[in-house]
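Severity: low
Component: inverse-folding endpoint
Summary: output formatting inconsistent between runs
Steps to reproduce: submit the following structure tokens with default settings.
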């Protein structure tokens, strides 16, 4: 596998793909990437993928082939998303013969489209599960950072002491799935985001129809006063907007830190009709491609002040 030089900074950073290979091909083409044999290449730039290549969309195999071929030929870095992590755990047995991720109806349904895509290619499926284990959980150089869901300094610093080349090795998987361990906590945060329980044991129904008792925190900026669910939550939760929330134990991303890119949060295009950076040093690139949204890319060239004009997407996708 060819490696990208550590001082390289001309990255096109692409958010959650979720099996939408046609959108990926259109985006790569619009960015100037061309097929060279079996992989896409740009004369001056590389891609950094933020994870979640599988589930939801039907062209999972095609997406994985594109991403893996680019990584193998030194044209991209691919991070692990929570869906790849879930797939690893769904297919990994513990010492007592149970799976790390329960084969419940909810978990089966989440992964069903991916498993169906590989139904005629079981060995290829196994190969990709093993490949997922080689994907780093985060990337950082002197200029910027990238992670699937949440850059939390405490969690990332801990993971640096446990991981091999920022990757979660097979011998750590069981510990990483054991609730209460520091490794479990750190992996949950970086791949799935910070969460806070709703007050008074309340609940809500999320976008997938699942009952939730906790919500995702908008960790990328210090919330405005007063601290309520509407100012702290990363998504709109009806009927609880004015609930006061205690955020004293939450470390929000510093406005002085280097730029960070992430996906995971199902952003929607706002009234400006285009994706926008969240703050001058934070940018989410998940714009709900699996829910009639857009596949989005930030064209990064080493700047410390991010600019919404560097976000690329094609309105005619849908």
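Observed output (run 2 of 3):
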């Amino acid at each position: 596998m060819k490696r990208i030089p550590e001082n390289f900074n001309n990255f096109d950073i692409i958010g959650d793909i979720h099996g939408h290979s046609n959108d990926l091909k259109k985006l790569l083409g619009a960015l100037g990437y061309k097929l060279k044999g079996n992989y896409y290449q740009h004369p001056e730039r590389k891609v950094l993928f933020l994870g979640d290549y599988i589930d939801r969309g039907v062209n999972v195999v095609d997406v994985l082939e594109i991403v893996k071929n680019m990584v193998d030929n030194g044209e991209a870095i691919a991070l692990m998303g929570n869906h790849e992590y879930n797939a690893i755990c769904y297919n990994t047995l513990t010492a007592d013969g149970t799976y790390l991720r329960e084969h419940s109806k909810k978990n089966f349904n989440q992964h069903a489209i991916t498993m169906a895509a590989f139904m005629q290619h079981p060995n290829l499926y196994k190969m990709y599960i093993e490949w997922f284990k080689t994907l780093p959980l985060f990337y950082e150089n002197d200029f910027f950072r990238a992670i699937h869901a949440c850059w939390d300094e405490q969690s990332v610093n801990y993971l640096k002491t446990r991981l091999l080349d920022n990757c979660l090795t097979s011998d750590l998987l069981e510990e990483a799935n054991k609730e209460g361990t520091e490794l479990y906590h750190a992996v949950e945060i970086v791949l799935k985001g910070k969460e806070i329980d709703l007050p008074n044991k309340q609940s809500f129904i999320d976008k997938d129809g699942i009952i939730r008792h906790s919500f995702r925190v908008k960790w990328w900026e210090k919330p405005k006063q007063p601290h309520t669910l509407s100012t702290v939550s990363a998504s709109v939760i009806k009927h609880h907007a004015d609930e006061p929330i205690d955020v004293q134990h939450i470390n929000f991303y510093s406005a002085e830190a280097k730029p960070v890119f992430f996906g995971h949060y199902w952003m929607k295009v706002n009234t400006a009709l285009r994706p926008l950076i969240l703050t001058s040093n934070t940018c989410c690139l998940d714009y709900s491609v699996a829910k009639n949204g857009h596949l989005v890319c930030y064209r990064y060239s080493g700047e410390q002040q991010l600019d919404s004009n560097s976000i690329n997407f094609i309105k005619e996708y849908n």
